[in-house]
Design brief:
Layout: H1 2-39, E1 42-46, E2 52-55, E3 72-77, E4 81-85, E5 91-94, E6 111-116, E7 122-126, E8 132-135, E9 152-157, E10 161-165, E11 171-174, E12 191-204, E13 210-213, E14 230-235, E15 239-243, E16 249-252, E17 269-271
Antiparallel strand pairs: 1-2, 1-3, 4-5, 4-6, 7-8, 7-9, 10-11, 10-12, 12-13, 12-14, 15-16, 15-17
Length: 272
């Protein structure tokens, strides 16, 4: 009799242990799935104002800078491949060819693959259309939005220093001073080192340049003349904010500072 009770208790114990293991495994799978959902980002574009965002879910529709509400179009998952639409000029990083629906120039997008981005990237700019991107090798030359083929210029390896050309206004992150050849405003670039990349959003209230910087960037050589007038908008974060007055878009840990909107007065921030 004791043996029977022992066997019954043993079987019940095994059943409980098995059920617990199955439950824990299902919870682990659920957690992994939820984490994946939160980390996977998609490219969204508003077909009214043209704003492009990388977001884990559809952004807020409120306060489109073109009036009324945003009309978001999901273009597909963010990835390591550079694409550009040869109709509207939109460039983005995508896992595969983005959705063709709802080009802001009407009809469907005409996507052109410009090549893959990797860990070791270089700054390239087309001297015809002005498009700049980060790529592991020279991007595809096909379908320049200015007609014919792209004329790519390798400006040097991507790095942790902010540079801007005071002639054409191009800003980029570079390991060292970028190549001076082939400024889109003619002649050579006149590069200005604005300081190290960091975790604060700074904007010049004169020229509108936005930078992520470790400290207040150098004031020299504002493209609007004289010196930059930098405004610290707060810490860089994972939340997308846009000012519905000036259209400035940035990623911030919390609502950015409202002071010194480039359109005058204060920023009117909208969390997307």
């Amino acid at each position: 009799m004791k043996n029977i009770y022992f066997r019954i208790l043993l079987i019940m114990g095994l059943m409980f242990a098995t059920t617990s293991i199955i439950y824990l495994q299902s919870q682990e799978k659920k957690t992994v799935y939820e984490e994946k959902i939160l980390t996977v980002k998609n490219n969204y574009q508003c077909t009214k104002c043209g704003l492009l965002l990388e977001a884990a879910k559809q952004p807020s529709a409120y306060n489109c800078t073109s009036g009324g509400i945003h009309q978001w179009n999901n273009l597909g998952e963010v990835g390591q491949n550079n694409y550009q639409c040869k109709k509207c000029g939109l460039s983005l990083k995508s896992m595969k060819q983005p959705s063709a629906y709802n080009c802001t120039k009407g009809g469907s997008h005409q996507w052109n693959s410009l090549g893959e981005k990797s860990q070791n990237n270089y700054n390239y700019q087309c001297t015809k259309c002005g498009l700049s991107l980060k790529s592991a090798k020279q991007p595809s030359a096909y379908n320049c939005t200015s007609g014919g083929i792209h004329q790519w210029n390798n400006l040097g390896e991507v790095g942790q220093n902010n540079y801007q050309c005071k002639k054409c206004g191009l800003s980029l992150k570079s390991m060292k001073q970028p190549s001076a050849y082939n400024c889109t405003s003619g002649g050579i670039h006149q590069w200005n080192n604005l300081g190290e990349v960091g975790q604060n959003n700074y904007q010049c209230t004169k020229c509108g340049l936005l930078l992520k910087s470790a400290k207040q960037p150098s004031a020299y050589n504002c493209t609007s003349g004289g010196i930059h007038q930098w405004n610290n908008l707060g810490e860089v974060g994972q939340n997308d904010y846009q000012c519905k007055k000036c259209g400035l878009l940035l990623k911030s840990a919390k609502q950015p500072s409202a002071y010194n909107c480039t359109k005058g007065g204060i920023h009117q921030w909208n969390k997307l």
